[in-house]
Amino acid sequence: MTVATDILAEGKTKILRPGSQPDEVLVEFKDAATAFNGKKYAEIPGKGELNAQISTLLFELLGRHGVPTCFIGGGSNPAELVYKRLTMIPLEVVVRNYAYGSIVKRFGFDEGMSFRKPLVEFFHKTDDDPQITEDLILELHLVPTESILEAIKLMALQINELFLAYFAARGIRCADFKLEFGLDKNGNLLLGDELSPDNFRLRDSQTGAVLDKDVFRLDLADLAETYRTLLKRLKENTPAAPSEKQTYQAEVFVQSRKNILNPESKAILEGVHVLGYGSIQSLNAGKRFVLKVEAENLLEAEQQARKLAETVLSNPVIEDFELRIKR
Ligand code: 5GP
């Protein structure tokens, strides 16, 4: 039997205990359901197990597509998972495809309307989880570097593409979800937390039936029954919908590395000084490539554009590149 001293941390819906390896933790999903910042609470037998199993399916999906996550495998009971130990970043990263919940209240969108493109919002994990801007996240040092914040946003959008396609193939609309990220002992950014319907808004594409924690928040249906039906639908070997290619816009900026003499930049800087702009101390001329990439999802498009940038558009010995990509 596990003793209380084993507990590393306990939240509303999960208990963390040390794993068999120093860099692993055991995560027990509790049967508790909470809403409205803990004001609504119920014990729902079987919920922990269902959340662990649904999270497993979704972590495995992301793993198959190369998304780095904390997930290692199942634990010693069906409500337990084994995770890599992470230092969590105190942010809730919410991705929205359709307007539901707090964004409707905050900005008056019509409920259920589809956004032109997926939205990413950040909330600071404190007592009342206020919304926070990217500038404030950096000002408060909630992430170690700006590039980690950019990576979080890109990863959240890549994960969204995978979830949209996965749920759509099972007749489910993925309206929104919340992610949390952390850093492993080597400083690598990994997806953490859970991927259960507690963190998602999922609607049946045909009937609009609610398949997530809103059934508990709004007293719409039995939560365990809803999650059980969802798990069954996710497990069913539904043939994947024919994959549709999308077009993504990519920009690649190539510049010579710092401290590497670039004759073109030197010549322009000399000309600039001759023209009277003596205040310009340095100048690094670069190249910008604008690409249209056809791919099944953002992750695939990003991988193709990155490979091209690394191998063809830039010279890795003397140049760095920056890649921006969007749908
Ligand atoms: P909203 O901002 O509309 O309340 O939530 C957006 C999405 O993020 C929903 O799918 C919701 O379930 C999830 N989410 C936001 N905050 C939390 C939270 O504190 N806990 C959990 N489990 N999910 C959250």
State the name of the first-level CATH class of the largest domain. Alpha Beta
Distance between the termini: 51 Å
Considering the protein shown, what is the CATH homologous superfamily of the largest domain? ATP-grasp fold, B domain
Helix count equals: 8
| Helix content estimate | 25-40%
Q: What is the 3D shape?
A: elongated
Q: Secondary-structure element sequence?
A: EEEEEHEEEEHEHHEEEEHHEHEHE
Major sheet details: 5 strands, antiparallel
Main β-sheet, spatial strand arrangement:
1-2-3-7-6
Cα-atom Rg, whole angstroms?
23 Å
Strand content: 25-35%
- Domain tally: 3
Q: Which fold name corresponds to the CATH topology of the largest domain?
A: D-amino Acid Aminotransferase, Chain A, domain 1
pLDDT < 50 runs, ≥5 residues: none
By secondary-structure content and strand pairing, the structural class works out as: alpha+beta
Number of strands: 17
Explain what this protein looks like in three dimensions.
This protein is elongated. The termini are far apart. Helix 1 (47-64) packs parallel to helix 6 (223-235). The protein has eight helices and 17 strands. Strand 12 (181-183) and strand 13 (189-191) form a beta hairpin. A five-stranded antiparallel sheet has the order 1-2-3-7-6. A four-stranded antiparallel sheet has the order 10-9-11-14, with helices on one face. The chain has a three-stranded antiparallel sheet with strand order 8-12-13, with helices on one face. The protein has 327 residues and is α+β, with helices and mostly antiparallel strands. It has helices at residues 47-64, 102-107, 134-139, 146-168, 214-217, 223-235, 263-274, 298-313; strands at 9-10, 14-18, 24-29, 32-35, 40-43, 71-74, 80-84, 87-88, 91-98, 114-124, 172-179, 181-183, 189-191, 200-204, 246-256, 286-295, 319-326. It folds into three domains: 4-84, Phosphorylase Kinase, domain 1 (2-Layer Sandwich); 87-235, D-amino Acid Aminotransferase, Chain A, domain 1, CATH 3.30.470.20; 246-326, Phosphoribosylformylglycinamidine synthase subunit PurS (Mth169, Chain: A, 2-Layer Sandwich). The mean pLDDT is 93. Residues 92, 94, 100-103, 129, 176-178, 198-201, 213 line the site of guanosine-5'-monophosphate (5GP).
